Amino acid sequence: MVILCGGKGTRFREETEHRPKPLVEVGGHPILWHIMKGYAAQGLDDFVLCLGYKGEMIKRYFMDYRWLNSDLAIELGTQKVSLLDSHMDTTWRVSLIDTGQETMTGARLKKVERYVHGDTFMVTYGDGVTDLNINDLLRFHQSHGKIGTVTGVSPPSRYGELGIEHDRVVSFREKPQSSQANISGGYFVFKRAFFDYLSADESCVLEREPLENLALAGELKVYRHNGFWQCMDTARDYEYLQRLWGEGRAPWRTWAD
Prior knowledge:
Elements: E1 2-5, H1 13-16, E2 25-26, E3 29-30, H2 31-40, E4 46-51, H3 55-63, H4 65-68, E5 70-75, E6 80-86, E7 93-98, H5 105-111, E8 120-125, E9 128-130, H6 134-144, E10 148-153, E11 161-165, E12 168-173, E13 183-184, E14 188-191, H7 209-216, E15 220-225, E16 229-231, H8 235-246
Parallel strand pairs: 1-4, 1-8, 4-7, 10-15
Antiparallel strand pairs: 2-3, 5-6, 8-14, 9-16, 10-13, 10-14, 11-12
């Protein structure tokens, strides 16, 4: 699983001025941790993180992960530290790769090609959570034989929707499910051949020529997900995710404690 973690998060400057967006915490854990827990809950725990903006902070988080997720006993005189109960995910393998400060998403992916093994790999962004069944997505990808699969989602509207006849409101729905076409929710699956569509040039944007050309070649399929999906682009998104977690209504929490 490749996770794109290098962007500057400019639309969420309140938090990202001080730390990379993947480390912004929801319920006391970075959003990145939530994404990885979702994958690991379905048996997928080998991660490659594409670092960029403030990437050293993500490295430090994983270097300190063991003691951050364990109960400790410290002898203050000698500073001897003993680990007590550990709550860490011991099976995860996390490769932390610096892909450049100004690099665009397609180039970041190209730059980790040598760290991706096998013919099938997954890609997502470091700011979106979902209750997607990853294994169902993978089976769909394997069934059609094309190079790529993108998960299509229909997120709730940000605003109330008015039903209008002339100048009269005939219905009002608060934040209904969007009736428009699906949007990309990330959560991609690719064959290794997709790397040939990418360039290591820093200007290569995954969502432009690489995916556009893959679609034109008839090699990109969509897996429609009608469940929960939410990215964390803005402070409003962040507050929404915090509220769901705090109220015990987080649909993306697909793992057992």
